[in-house]
């Protein structure tokens, strides 16, 4: 509730605000993510957003879909691992389209395994 009330104070969420929110970013609604954050801003804030714990399936899916539609590509294990806590937002067809090598590389990375 605290996180939700905090994010209601903002109309826009540039990367600086997203990074500053830290864990409170979990208070962003799917509507906030869809309508108030550009895909480029999500990409720029990905290192911070990928560390947030407690994303709902709708939130993580909205973020990941917006990232992918903005040109984010999962070409190797590193780019998959960069999604961090948002990896749950990958839909099954996207996961199936990844090569086994990408998955194998990612699961060797300690930050991904966490």
TrEMBL record:
<protein>
    <recommendedName>
        <fullName>Stereocilin LRR domain-containing protein</fullName>
    </recommendedName>
</protein>
<dbReference type="InterPro" id="IPR048992">
    <property type="entry name" value="Stereocilin_LRR"/>
</dbReference>
<dbReference type="GO" id="GO:0007160">
    <property type="term" value="P:cell-matrix adhesion"/>
</dbReference>
<dbReference type="InterPro" id="IPR026664">
    <property type="entry name" value="Stereocilin-rel"/>
</dbReference>
<keyword id="KW-0325">Glycoprotein</keyword>
<dbReference type="GO" id="GO:0009986">
    <property type="term" value="C:cell surface"/>
</dbReference>
<feature type="domain" description="Stereocilin LRR">
    <location>
        <begin position="35"/>
        <end position="101"/>
    </location>
</feature>
<keyword id="KW-0732">Signal</keyword>
<dbReference type="Pfam" id="PF21058">
    <property type="entry name" value="Stereocilin"/>
</dbReference>
